[in-house]
Amino acid sequence: MESMMIYMPIAAALIGLIYMVVKKSWVMKQDAGDGKMKEISDHIYEGALAFLNAEYRLLAIFVVIVSIALSAVAYFVPTTHWLIVIAFIFGAIFSAFAGNMGMKIATKTNVRTTQAAKTSLPNALKVSFGGGTVMGLGVAGLAVLGLTLFFLGFFHFFMGGVWTNTMDMTIVLETLAGFSLGAESIALFARVGGGIYTKAADVGADLVGKVEAGIPEDDPRNPATIADNVGDNVGDVAGMGADLFGSYVATVLAAMVLGNYVIRDMGGNIADAFGGIGPILLPMAIAGVGIIISIIGTMLVKIKSNDAKESEVMSALNIGNWVSIVLVAITCYGLVIWMLPETMQMNFFGEGLLEISSMRVFYATLVGLVVGAVISSVTEYYTGLGKKPILKIVQQSSTGAGTNIIAGLATGMISTFPSVLLFAGAIWASYAFAGFYGVALAASAMMATTAMQLAIDAFGPISDNAGGIAEMSEQEPIVRERTDILDAVGNTTAATGKGFAIASAALTSLALFAAYVTFTGIDGINIFKAPVLAMLFVGGMVPVVFSALAMNAVGKAAMEMVEEVRRQFREIPGIMEGTGKPEYDKCVAISTEASLKEMMLPGLLTIGFPLVIAFVPMIFGMNNLAIAEMLGGYMAGVTVSGVLWAIFQNNAGGAWDNAKKSFEAGVLINGEMTYKGSEAHKAAVTGDTVGDPFKDTSGPSMNILIKLTCLIGLVIAPILGGHASEDINSNEPITVTENAAVKKVYVDFIITSDDFAKAVVSVTNVKNEEISTEELVISGTKEEVDAKVAQLKSESTQFKMDVTDSRPVDVK
Amino acid sequence: MESMMIYMPIAAALIGLIYMVVKKSWVMKQDAGDGKMKEISDHIYEGALAFLNAEYRLLAIFVVIVSIALSAVAYFVPTTHWLIVIAFIFGAIFSAFAGNMGMKIATKTNVRTTQAAKTSLPNALKVSFGGGTVMGLGVAGLAVLGLTLFFLGFFHFFMGGVWTNTMDMTIVLETLAGFSLGAESIALFARVGGGIYTKAADVGADLVGKVEAGIPEDDPRNPATIADNVGDNVGDVAGMGADLFGSYVATVLAAMVLGNYVIRDMGGNIADAFGGIGPILLPMAIAGVGIIISIIGTMLVKIKSNDAKESEVMSALNIGNWVSIVLVAITCYGLVIWMLPETMQMNFFGEGLLEISSMRVFYATLVGLVVGAVISSVTEYYTGLGKKPILKIVQQSSTGAGTNIIAGLATGMISTFPSVLLFAGAIWASYAFAGFYGVALAASAMMATTAMQLAIDAFGPISDNAGGIAEMSEQEPIVRERTDILDAVGNTTAATGKGFAIASAALTSLALFAAYVTFTGIDGINIFKAPVLAMLFVGGMVPVVFSALAMNAVGKAAMEMVEEVRRQFREIPGIMEGTGKPEYDKCVAISTEASLKEMMLPGLLTIGFPLVIAFVPMIFGMNNLAIAEMLGGYMAGVTVSGVLWAIFQNNAGGAWDNAKKSFEAGVLINGEMTYKGSEAHKAAVTGDTVGDPFKDTSGPSMNILIKLTCLIGLVIAPILGGHASEDINSNEPITVTENAAVKKVYVDFIITSDDFAKAVVSVTNVKNEEISTEELVISGTKEEVDAKVAQLKSESTQFKMDVTDSRPVDVK
After folding, report:
1. Coiled coil where (chains A, B) (predicted)?
2. d(CA B59, CA B88)
3. Which of A375, A453, B42, B251 might form a disulfide with B508, Cβ 3.0–4.6 angstroms?
4. B402 lies within 8 A of chain A by CB
5. Torsion over CA of B212, B216, B218 and B219, rounded to 10 degrees?
6. If we measure between CA atoms, which residue out of B62, B132, B56 comes closest to residue B94?
């Protein structure tokens, strides 16, 4: 059975996808309501589809360009295999498909939720959460299926399906990184493009409709209202789907890469029942079981009472969520004990090889689960209705928009305190338990319930849309009240979901960062070198500028929308009386075009910067390992700053939103009950306008930015690490002689293919806890490297080792 | 003559102080106007003095507590000398005195500027800039005098006034760091306390006076108006004076520390005409000449025409500024060529010893001067009236406060792009020219004209006050118009001054960071170690939370002020008619108390975090060098994030301010001229309210935060680097034998005193470009270390070296 374990994640993914199909047909069988409702729903569906199609056409061009670039790299750089291009393309396609699928089911579920809300609240939850479940399982199933199939394929192609050595597996995983790169690239554009779309439409609709014309939200007389509802689907659904698809794949990949290094540290071979690749299979296995657990979790989400309030809906979701987290913990225990050797050797930088028991790996997964849970509570505290920070913003609204804004900004900024301490503690603890493999597995455990998280996240915008349809199709107030309950809960889950996303992105990026350092073969990232420090600064700046570009894009697109809505109000006769029909499609077109145009620059910034840092100094003949270290500094800068700005923006935006919402039920300011329409409320609305791009455009893009940056680094890694073919021609004498200070000589092939090989000869010094910098890199064709190693052996009688083996060999 | 060079900076400082006294008596001789003007001026003077006295009382307690802590450390930790306590106390006193003196002259100059403005604009500039000059020369003179005197004292105390070796000089400079620590601690509280004071009063006065009661700014009926004018003096004058005093001292100190390491890298001894300490004296010499140059620069600032506009006043300032920068460049060339050896050896981390010509050091100083100039232009672009970013914010104001805020935030964020690229380029270039010594000298050159910069900075708030006095004493409109011209120029110089301050802080922090790494003797800061990376995250978070605390403090204090002003309007009969007298002192008291209370928490955060990171793991028995590396990661995090947040906040705040100001002359929005009082203007006022704490409280505090953090690290450094006395008892065999891989053995005493010594034995490997990690730290009493080194020698026949020498000694 153990040897079949590699197929288990595929089976689990297929079960997830089958369950998804079943659930989908159930949702589609639900009543879609009357003609007007269907018409509105169709408008939204078509608008969303039109946007996605336009977006995918544009992204297809992008994929072609990147593929050509990758092919050229694969052709000229012997350490890169052309299969990475195929993996990249499929990663992009899978990611786009996941987003597209989610959007389709969401736009079909919204009207059915409205119809269900006519009967009862439990039914409305059942339908909307059903739609979310379809999306969640679809995304997670596709992610696990795609990643596992490609892994299997490459494992057979490069290694014949059996473990050979670390360097071969490195090539497998390096090529697999193309899949993740494809997925994450699409996610970036989907998130940013969708985020710009949704906020441009939202702000545009609100500013003219609500504020200037004084008509309610989602009023059918507002020309931008369809665009607004489309935005919920392309931003909050399709964008988020692509985002979590990318996260999921990147997390599992990073853990696999580090699992490969665990095997290397253990001597290059482990005798386990899983074909000797237990540590590599483990993260896939956790992901696979996570899908099954998510199915169980989604089944537990239900309410009975038709008079349920937000808190009861929230606890229904919490039950499902908590049960799945506990189940993941139990599963991790079983899988870790079963699949990993009882004790492993792991190389800790600066500390040498340490003995790590498999129980410590399990503890690392627990760290991940705890962080996932705690970050949600932290986020809820800073953004939740009725909590202290929100009440303070509400109070500060009484003295105007200025003080409301200051309070909201300060809340977002303060919220970085517990969040960052939590992340720092998690990094430290999971690393202390099981090194960077522990960090990666903490992220994997946290991400195991991605399907469940997505279901919880996606039901929010579905309910939001359902409310919009209820309003536009002029249903009884009770229908809107019911969807509003779901929508309110959805706002909270959206905020906590963002906390969860950034937590997992932080851990995943660190794991990718660790993989990068090992791939390139550099001796860590030392910020005491000025060029590395300079790049740390540059990296820190990129998330800030990225956020500004995204915000400006929203501003620009919203202004265009405002002009168009004003024009229609002015020019279409009878529009305010309901006799003239607004031109919805014009507004949809404006949002579509503006968001596609505006997503280019931030995307270029993200992809361009690491390429410039890697290749410009290379042209000037800078040492490749020095460049690799600089790029590492850049990656660290982007990660640290990106995490900070994500927390800041997400929480400030969420806090402003709920401060504004607080006025709906009335708030006590200076002893007086204050409601919607008051001056304080208007100030709170201004705060929410600022918060919108924060929380829905720039904030959630941060986690893709940091993951994509680290992935690009990982894909560039072999170019930087394997390019130094002049080493082979060096005239420097190479001598490794026995002496008291040298204890072990360690030969490892980082890359090997038909026309290229690279060996690293490291010398462990007498203290045994440090790897000496006396490290020799030999690269060139396989023959050249073999010859050089043979020469090494002949030069030194103490140099006894098997050159095809990456096991540490004792000198005498 | 060369041997007397050590006294030159003292002479220059005394010349500066004498010129200051002369200038001051000239200012005081000017007419202080009529009785009402004098009365108002006295109110401001007394309010400011009351605040400073209350602040200093509180800070005296702080100084006593820190002194006791430092004494305890000096007593228990053998590597720290008790004289650091004396240096700390004097640093604090000098800093407080500099701030106090600046505030006094400013509050005396304001009314004289008003009076001068009655006659002509050139006279008004002459008086206000004269006051600024007094302050600038006072601060710079005191800084150079204090630092040089203490250096001379310690040089004689520890070394008998002649060069002995690097380790003795390290103790001199380590003790001197106490002076800088004292200065920077006071600066932190002065900046934050003053910043809270000025904005609480400003926001409070505006919200009730301008917005609610509809009376103009500085109207004598507004009870908060005196507090507002006091705020300009305690925040923009006293706070800034203490800030730049601290920067100046820290910059010169950092360059001296790195100069000491240049001497070490050159073999521990250089034969120059400056007593063998040319590289250490150079930064002091540059500072000394800088004072004389600043005097020349200030003399050039004058205008002739009474009808001059802002641009002519600005170019008068620019002439003075540019001439002084060019003179500094020429001086640097002369001093560098004269004082430094023609070629030096400098140890570049990871690259080994390189030959550096003194011309390259000169190029590094040019880098500093260029950065100082360019960052001012960049800042002016993003915050200047009539520039594209400001026009965009103005346009976005037409759709309300929300879009105005988004545009302002985005402008601040985008402005990090050129600024950070500039800093990164400067770090890289100055390091490439002359290592970290080059980075430190770049900062020194940039800071050489501190006196001139301060004169330019201080004349702004003086003119602002002069305008206030004109309004309150009901002068002819022409008087206010003239002071308004000066005030407008002052706003621009305030923004560019902040850019300058953060640029110098960034370079200084890096130099301090480099000094820290060398002091502790760690092998760089490697962020591939998870605990170091975790601390990078934590460090990145601190400036964000610090800013939030400062902003919240302003919000809280402003709310109290609002309540008080409302109460007075309600309860004092005839106040609005001008027959009832407002209780100005109550408002002054509120600002004073609130700011003193609220500055505690940010201060605690800044000082507490590095102490917790250093000492808590120590209690748990963590390795000291590992802690030192973690603390280094923290310092890097604070620096990178602090620089980003400083640029973001300063520029966003400046941009909002000038966007609001644009409405005074009228702006073209959608083809219509729009003025003060329009809806768009109201939106711009809201933006300015948000920007106020950004640009005057949290933003400018960032540079003190990062410098203070690095200074605390530097003071802790010997504790971390010298505490490992268990090394001496280690049972590990220590052997350094001849082999092909070992080329040079390097013994260096990092610390030596009567009861403690520490030797680091490093081995340079065969490649010559790398220092091997085969590094041995021996610490304990001097006898123990001597014995161990003797043992080393006896164990290995190849180990030929003079243990009292830190010169690299060839093996065999």
Report:
1. none
2. 13
3. B251
4. yes
5. -90
6. B56
Q: Cα A694 from chain centroid? A: 17
Rounded Cα–Cα distance for residues A166 and A159 (Å) = 11
Contact between B385 and B684 (Cβ < 8 Å) = no
Over residues A568-621, the pLDDT tens digits come to: 988 888 888 878 888 888 888 888 888 888 888 999 999 999 999 998 988 888
pLDDT digits (tens, 9 = 90+) for B107-165: 999 999 999 999 999 999 999 999 999 999 999 999 999 999 999 999 999 888 889 88
d(CA B225, CA B724): 58
Instruction: Mean pLDDT check: name the lowest of A788-797, B56-65, B285-294.
Output: A788-797
| Enclosing H/E stretch for B111 | helix B83-119
**Angstroms from A416 CA to nearest CA on chain B:** 6
Alpha-carbon distances of A413 from A33, A408, A655, A704, B632, rounded to whole Å: 45, 9, 11, 21, 24
Distance from CA of B52 to the nearest CA of A (A): 27
The domain limits of chain A are 2-722, 726-810
Name the minimum distance, in Å, from the CA of A68 to any CA of chain B.
30
* CB of B534 less than 8 A from some CB of A: yes
Beta strands in B122-257 (DSSP E): none
Coil, strand or helix at A344: strand
A626, with CB counted inside 10 A (0-12, 13-18, 19+), is middle
Taking the CA atoms of chain A, what radius of gyration do you get in angstroms? Answer: 27
Pick B552's closest partner by Cβ from A349, A410, A739. Answer: A410
**Whether complex ipTM tops 0.90:** no
For residue B792, pLDDT beyond 50 = yes
CA distance linking residue A254 with residue A448, whole number of Å: 14
Identity of the amino acid at A480: R
Half-sphere exposure of A118 (CA within 13 A, CB side): 18
Chain B partners within 8 Å of A525 (Cβ): 526-528
The answer for residues whose C-beta is within 8 angstroms of residue B589's C-beta and 6 or more apart is none
Give the other-Cβ count within 10 Å of B805's Cβ: 15
Q: For residue A779, what pLDDT band results from cuts at 50, 70 and 90?
A: low
Strands annotated E in B478-533 = none
Pair of tokens at residue A452: 């469940």
| pTM score over 0.95 | no
d(CA A536, CA B640): 7
DSSP conformation class of A755: T
Residue A774 forms contact with B (CB below 8 Å) = yes
How far apart (Å, rounded) are the C-alpha atoms in residues B276 and A456? 71
In whole angstroms, give the CA distance from residue B195 to residue A539: 30
Interhelix angle for B530-571 vs B166-204, to 10°?
Answer: 30
> Are B414 and A548 within 8 A, CB to CB?
yes
CA distance A151 to A321: 30
User: Which residue in A208, A348, A388, A413 has the most chain B C-beta atoms within 10 A of its own C-beta, making it the best mutation to test that interface?
Assistant: A413
B421-B425-B429 Cα angle (round to 5): 175
For chains A and B, count residue pairs whose Cβ atoms are closer than 8 Å. 280
Q: Can you tell me the distance from the alpha carbon of B328 to that of B320, in angstroms, rounded to the nearest whole number?
A: 12
Q: Are B258 and B145 in contact (CB under 8 A)?
A: no
Estimate the crossing angle of helix A477-520 against helix A624-665, to 10 degrees.
170
List residues bridging with B672 in a β-sheet: B669
**Beta strand pairing status for A809-810 and B667-669?**
unpaired
Asked if the C-beta of A49 comes within 8 angstroms of chain B's C-beta atoms, the answer is: no
Residues whose CB falls within 8 Å of the CB of residue B21, separated by 6 or more in sequence, listed in order: none
| C-beta of residue B89 within 8 angstroms of C-beta of residue B183 | no
